[in-house]
Design brief:
By secondary structure, the chain is α/β, with parallel strands linked by helices. It has 3 domains: 147 residues, 3-Layer(aba) Sandwich (Rossmann fold), CATH 3.40.50.1390; 103 residues, Alpha-Beta Complex (Hect, E3 ligase catalytic domain fold), CATH 3.90.1750; 179 residues, no CATH class. It is 52% helix and 12% strand. The chain has 17 helices and 14 strands. Strands 2-1-3-4 form a 4-stranded parallel beta sheet, sandwiched between helices. The protein has a 3-stranded mixed beta sheet with strand order 9-13-14. Strands 10-11-12 form a 3-stranded antiparallel beta sheet. A hairpin with a 2-residue loop joins strand 13 and strand 14. Helix 5 runs antiparallel to helix 6, helix 7 runs antiparallel to helix 8 and helix 7 crosses helix 10. The chain is flat, with a radius of gyration of 37 Å. The chain starts with a helix and ends in a 5-residue tail after the last helix.
Length: 529
Amino acid sequence: MTSENQTKKFFIYARKSTDSEDRQIRSIADQLAELRELAKKENIDVVDILVEKQTAKKPGRPVFAEMLKRIEAGEATGILAWHPDRLARNSVDGGQIIYLVDTGIIKELKFPTFWFDPTPQGKFMLSIAFGQSKYYIDNLSENIKRGHRQKLKNGLWPQMAPLGYLNNKETKLIYVNKEKAPFIKKAFEAYASGNHTLKNIRKIINDLGLKGRRDGLLSVSNFQYLLRNPFYYGIIRYNGEFYNGKHEPIISKKLFDACQEMMKRKSKPQKADKMKFFLYRGFFRCGECGFTITADKKIKPSGREYTYYYCTKKNPNHICSQNVFTREEKISSQIQTEIQKVSLPDDWADKMINELENEKKEKAQSSRFFAQKTENEIKVIDEKLEKLMNAYLESALNLAEYREVKNKLVNQKQLLKDKLTAFEQKSNNRFELAAKFINTVKQAEIIALQENPEQGRDFLKKIGSNFRLSGQKLFCDFKNPFKILAEAEPERSEGEANLTQNAEIVNWRRVWDLNPRGLSPNQYSKLAP
């Protein structure tokens, strides 16, 4: 035995995918026994034994990926496995193995049941083995689907029997579970009566002794699924399609339909309770003590009813002096006034939108220049990576040198990509949020002039916070950037009423400027109401 053979380092990789845990363990144990024996015979140094209990039909096995990563890091140069199909049953994983063999990262593959040598012939045979494995999986999948379709046409359920039924392994048919079926029927009957919620059904039926497949208690969602399953009255629903089943129904279709109607009825929003509705209930707090403002109704001697709001005075640490009542219509009028503070006439708003669009076009040109420059830098790095790979394949660089330079280039490329993405997002968000803000304040005047108190309340909630009532006056804090606009509201005397529209726009623009000199980046980020 040569010294080279004595230092060979391999990973043992064993894999099995099945629904039966004990079968899985036995299969893996058999694989490991054979692989250990082969390692001993070949005088192989086993770095680690890796076991995976997952199908290789699709890429994404964590243990397999970790093994390849460790091989690329130089921990081992070969893999011991029972057969090539243990390593891959899909083209991606198979391609990875062959590529690592091609590049010399994997120097050897050994199997007790398959010959492999890192020669053109050996790699060709390995490709055929991986192709056969994939064909087997594809063919098996198609056969299973075909079998399922045929079973469904014949009225047979192709999978594990639902709760309340059992699978007959010999006849492949489904029959009623005499112990659990009565509980299933009782659940349908109880729910159809309308006297029980799903939560109550769960408690009642679970207490009676119904348990799931693994003797676990059923959840509310389990009962919801059960009560919606047409299988129990004889219909198979599979992938959204219905088939007439040959199994014995547990309930009648009439009972099933009654349950569906009850579920539909219960899912509808329930009518509000008998508590009186007040437009501004829970909207305000007392401006003095900070406690809740409540509401009540009174009827005048004339018979006209009106609503008023007042402090509950329930703050134990403060004796509130607010003894005045505020009429609802007075609050509505003040809300209109507050909304008007952030309103813009249509022509003003349209002019600002046009200016915003012009600035957006100007910025787009400079943005494109920046993006093109960054994309060119990324392209240069890609070219360097390709040249680096060629240099490594031609043995101009060793593996350590290749990795060191490659890692630096990859990091540089990622930084450039992140920089480009962040720039594009920032640029787009800035203009989108600004346009959204202008359109919002454009609506403010319309909403303020409409006699729709509920709409006014909702709009004020959108642009403000900390709503208070004190001495029959409404107070609130405007959110940014509405605060900026409200504080910049032009105050004009009657003698100044004839100012030109252009002069007014200039006055507004001193505070609300659509370029970054008017609003800070932080203020721009708060444009969305």
